[in-house]
Specification:
197 residues; alpha+beta; 7-stranded mixed β-sheet; 7 helices; 7 strands
Amino acid sequence: MITIVRADQAECDVRQGIAETFAEGFTQWLGFFSKDPKKIAASFAHMFILDQFYVAVSNGQVIGMAACTDGASFSVQLDKKELRKHLGFFKGSMAAIFLKKEFETTPGHPSPCAGSIEFVGTAAEFRGQGVASQLICHILEHTPYQVYLIDGVADTNIPAMKLYHKLGFDEYKRKPIPVKQAKKIGINYFVSLIHTQ
């Protein structure tokens, strides 16, 4: 039994579960700062703005997450002190500088009535069971936007791309990765998708 709820309205504290799901899904991108998912979870647990997140909960455990913003608000906010506390002065400072550009940005919207779906993730042991699909469908049904955008999907993330297409999202933009970086991270493009209600 899976329950979908906005994170700030959950019956229990879901911040740690969001952080662990984030760490499982994003550790490969954050490997410079730490290869340990527990350290990544502890380092970034502070950043989630709970009224922008939805969580899938099963038996009191967060098994999936996704944020939905109005495209002008942030879903996360980094705290340099927290990052330094967990990652050390140097790496914490670097994370605050570089990830601020990456995480604390608003997408350029093709429509003023657009919502931005961000940070979609499923706990490793629950992948392939429809959790992300239920989260996104819940967002589409319970938020007021006419258009929904998902930015920055790796072209090599085939399961995510298949899911988004199945749910009615279409590609509208493709941002190439510089060749040297593309070889290093194994991604050729970041894809942006749009869904119109």
